[in-house]
């Protein structure tokens, strides 16, 4: 469980063997183009591809069940809210109005349904790619990947440090919380809601103070080992690019180009079947 | 042939920007290449400041005003950045957990090399070499949270030794280790020193443990000045450590009690070799006490644990544990790191719930009580006072528990006043918490629990990191509470002498249960038990065995004598 808040699972598929950098690039590029495009054909294609990758990386349903359910719930809520706030947005976008049901303000149109289908697909398409990235990338590789795509190493290392110290802070939080409860803040179910809120806020002061002390010591320890001396640094966990890494990046670029090409023939971000 | 000087302090005075008085005053000190030096001194004597001046944390990270000259490896530190200096001085900070910056052991070892832009092939080679040397090669992929204190320290050591710098500086390397791990750590440092022939500087107040291996010189500091620089032999013969709030090796206390003249001793720095003309006779002439007067006579149980089982993440910690604690007991809870000492305390305090079994306090089952409700009877004092204190003012901190229990104001004032007096904090009552020293903060946390009038107090390592003076202060205070208020206490400790001197019962945890529940002296003389539970014999029992005296009696005699002295003070 250590350092494993992102759920990294050690395995040895070709997806795992890719460097963090190429996976991160693929994730960013494909997500961006899938977010921009509203072409249902293109997004479906990308969705199928990312599902294949998800299948190939041998991620088990039990590992992602919770997060997928959460995402689905939020996506549904979002789609419903979109409908409530602007049921006529689809008609406005596509310039036509094929009415299915007359309901006054909530009049349902084919355009609206199609628009929301696009939205739903866009939500769904990023889920497999981000899951694959998080679950198949060793946390130790995150920082070096970020650094390799151009983020400064000080910032990148902050990711590593956060991963390293989150379990420590969690433990401190629990200990302080218990000490405060022992003093008399009733945080258990026996306490009133407001007392519990007040009690939790009392934990923060010692937690922040002890974290600040810790930060001071860590920064000293890092400087004593020359962190910040050079403009660059190397990464122990960084790996050489293999053929598959280059192919991954090429694939990502091809997907982007394909998305752009679809936009060109659509004459914009939207594919309009109603014309 | 005289070796080259590695570190030279020439009349150095240093004042922190945050303080009005200098912390170091006119310090002059030379440490030669290849020397192994131990720097000792009470808390606040300036020894850590001295270390931070050597490794460059001062003035780079902590600001202050330096007068005089400091040369490290021939270079004036004024002209060097902390980075330059780190190539001359490998330093290991006090808490190896907090200097562990990598996600895994291998990354942590490589951290310095990464910052030097070393290529991956060289890094992997060096990581392998040093992890092999320090016997941590099987741990390379593990995260810091899964390591023991000793393993973390070895990782930190590997991480600075890769620099192959000429000086190795260690600030309190023993602080977080259990007795057995501490002993191995000192042996390892000795091995490194002999192997690399580097200059080793150890800042530590646990003198007896450091001196179990060869040390060239001991530098004694007090009040920002260097009292003197001695060979271990010379320092111990002078018998001056106690004057500076430091603890003498125990076996020397016993020899002194027997009236042995230290100057007549040979090998005074080793309990295994120390000898002299009259040692044997004098030790045997000692009027040995039969039994101590500190046995708890009470047969009235205050806490009963019945068939307790607890597992953490499916990993069993306790299975079918039974324990009865009597009113007025002073119990030391010992065992190797990670065996469940804190877990047992937290189970009693209700911080965590057992999977099975009952905890009965004064004939009342605690199972359904919340942490708050249990706290009315059982007080838990954490090791780090900063984690317990949440108020700004001392008075408010002590009053907090009473306020939350809706006591009327007049009662709160009276109780706070009383607690302030008992804990000798009355003169500070209107001060902010931040103005207190570590020892005073500890007393503050005890005071804020005492106002709730608990009948049982659990203390997690009450004296960790304290010098002898503060150790005595805290422990005598606790004993007074025990005697005068009949407060039952459990303390978690690694300190074998604390265990013998202050507790009437020792509970050794191990093998998911209680390995031994006996008088402390009995535990200390059970060699197999000590080995299994990572404890260590005191030098007192080693001395006793060498000269064929009953170690239990000798220990008791010394304790009785020290207690008489304490009471006389």
From TrEMBL, chain A:
Keywords, comma-separated and alphabetical: Membrane, Transmembrane, Transmembrane helix
Membrane-related topology note: Multi-pass membrane protein
Principal cellular location given in the protein's record: membrane
GO cellular component, one term: plasma membrane
Subcellular location: Membrane
Membrane spanning stretches: 24-54, 66-85, 120-137, 245-263
Protein name: Cobalt ABC transporter permease
Organism: Philodulcilactobacillus myokoensis
Automatic annotation (TrEMBL), chain B:
InterPro entries reported for this sequence: AAA+_ATPase (IPR003593), ABC_Co_transporter (IPR022216), ABC_transporter-like_ATP-bd (IPR003439), ABC_transporter-like_CS (IPR017871), ABC_transpr_CbiO/EcfA_su (IPR015856), ECF_ABC_transporter_ATP-bd (IPR050095), P-loop_NTPase (IPR027417)
Top-level taxonomic group: Bacteria
Residue intervals of the ABC transporter domain: 7-248, 303-536
Subcellular location: Cell membrane
Principal localisation: membrane
GO cellular component, one term: ATP-binding cassette (ABC) transporter complex
GO molecular function: ATP binding; ATP hydrolysis activity; ATPase-coupled transmembrane transporter activity
Family classification: Belongs to the ABC transporter superfamily.
Protein function: Probably part of an ABC transporter complex. Responsible for energy coupling to the transport system.
Protein's recorded name: ABC transporter ATP-binding protein
Organism: Philodulcilactobacillus myokoensis
């Amino acid at each position: 469980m250590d350092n494993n808040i992102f759920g990294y699972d050690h395995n040895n598929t070709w997806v795992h063997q890719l460097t963090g950098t190429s996976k991160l690039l693929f994730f960013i590029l494909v997500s961006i183009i899938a977010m921009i495009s509203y072409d249902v054909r293109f997004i479906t294609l990308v969705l199928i591809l990312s599902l294949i990758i998800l299948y190939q990386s041998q991620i088990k349903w039990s590992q992602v069940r919770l997060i997928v359910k959460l995402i689905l719930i939020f996506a549904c809520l979002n789609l419903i809210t979109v409908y409530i706030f602007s049921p006529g947005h689809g008609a406005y976008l596509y310039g036509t109005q094929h009415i299915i049901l007359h309901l006054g303000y909530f009049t349902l149109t084919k355009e609206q349904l199609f628009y929301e289908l696009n939205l739903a697909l866009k939500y769904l398409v990023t889920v497999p790619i981000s899951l694959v990235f998080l679950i198949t990338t060793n946390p130790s590789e995150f920082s070096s990947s970020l650094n390799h795509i151009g983020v400064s190493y000080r910032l990148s290392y902050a990711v590593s440090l956060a991963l390293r110290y989150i379990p420590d802070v969690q433990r401190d939080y629990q200990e302080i919380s218990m000490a405060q409860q022992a003093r008399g803040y009733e945080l258990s179910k026996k306490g009133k809601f407001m007392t519990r809120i007040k009690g939790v806020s009392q934990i923060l002061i010692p937690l922040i103070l002890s974290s600040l002390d810790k930060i001071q010591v860590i920064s000293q320890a890092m400087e004593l080992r020359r962190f910040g001396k050079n403009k660059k640094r190397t990464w122990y966990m960084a790996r050489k690019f293999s053929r598959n890494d280059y192919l991954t990046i090429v694939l990502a670029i091809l997907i982007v180009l394909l998305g752009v090409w679809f936009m060109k023939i659509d004459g914009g971000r939207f594919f309009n079947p109603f014309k | 042939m005289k070796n080259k000087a590695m570190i030279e302090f020439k009349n150095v005075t240093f004042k922190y920007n945050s303080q009005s008085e200098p912390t170091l005053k006119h310090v002059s000190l030379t440490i030669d290449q290849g020397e192994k030096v131990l720097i000792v001194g009470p808390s606040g004597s300036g020894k850590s400041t001295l270390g931070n001046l050597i490794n460059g944390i001062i003035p780079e990270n902590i600001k202050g005003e330096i007068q005089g000259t400091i040369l490290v490896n021939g270079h004036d530190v004024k002209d060097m950045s902390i980075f330059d200096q780190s190539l001359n001085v490998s330093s290991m900070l006090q808490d190896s957990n907090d200097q562990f910056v990598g996600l895994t052991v291998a990354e942590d070892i490589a951290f310095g090399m990464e910052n030097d832009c070393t290529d991956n092939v060289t890094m992997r080679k060096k990581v392998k070499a040093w992890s092999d040397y320090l016997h941590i090669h099987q741990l390379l992929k593990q995260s810091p949270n899964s390591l023991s204190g000793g393993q973390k320290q070895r990782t930190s050591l590997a991480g600075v030794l890769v620099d192959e710098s000429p000086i190795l500086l260690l600030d309190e390397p023993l602080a977080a280790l259990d007795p057995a791990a501490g002993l191995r750590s000192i042996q390892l440092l000795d091995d490194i020193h002999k192997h690399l022939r580097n200059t080793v500087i150890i800042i530590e107040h646990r003198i007896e443990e450091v001196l179990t291996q060869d040390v060239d010189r001991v530098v004694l500091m007090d009040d920002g000045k260097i009292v003197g620089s001695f060979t271990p032999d010379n320092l111990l013969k002078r018998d001056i450590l106690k004057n500076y709030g430091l603890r003498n090796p125990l076996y020397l206390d016993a020899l002194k009690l027997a009236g042995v003249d230290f100057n007549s001793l040979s090998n005074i720095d080793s309990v295994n070799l120390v000898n002299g003309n009259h040692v044997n006779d004098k030790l045997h002439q000692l009027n040995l006490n039969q039994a101590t007067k500190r046995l708890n006579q009470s047969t009235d149980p205050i806490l009963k644990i019945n068939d307790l089982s607890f597992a953490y993440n499916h990993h069993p910690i306790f299975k079918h544990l039974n324990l009865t604690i009597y009113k007025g007991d002073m119990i030391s809870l010992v065992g190797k790191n990670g065996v469940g000492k804190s877990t047992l305390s937290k189970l009693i305090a209700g911080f965590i719930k057992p999977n099975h079994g009952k905890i009965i306090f004064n004939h009342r089952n605690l199972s359904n009580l919340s942490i708050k409700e249990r706290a009315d009877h059982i007080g838990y004092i954490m090791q780090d006072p900063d984690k317990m204190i949440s108020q700004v003012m001392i008075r408010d901190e002590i009053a907090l528990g009473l306020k939350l229990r809706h006591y009327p104001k007049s009662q709160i004032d009276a109780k706070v006043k009383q607690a302030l007096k008992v804990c000798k904090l009355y003169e500070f009552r209107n001060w902010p918490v931040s103005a207190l020293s570590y020892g005073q903060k500890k007393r503050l946390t005890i005071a804020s629990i005492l106002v709730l009038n608990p009948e049982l107090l659990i203390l997690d390592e009450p004296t960790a990191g304290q010098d002898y003076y503060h150790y005595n202060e805290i422990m005598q205070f606790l004993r007074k509470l025990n005697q005068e208020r009949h407060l039952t206490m459990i303390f978690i400790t690694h300190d074998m002498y604390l265990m013998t001197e202050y507790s009437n019962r020792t509970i050794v945890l191990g093998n998911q249960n209680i390995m031994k529940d006996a008088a402390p002296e009995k535990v200390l003389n059970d060699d197999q038990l000590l080995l299994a539970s990572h404890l260590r014999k005191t030098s007192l029992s080693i001395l006793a065995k060498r000269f064929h005296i009953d170690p239990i009696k000798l220990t008791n005699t010394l304790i009785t004598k020290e207690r008489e002295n304490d009471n006389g003070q």
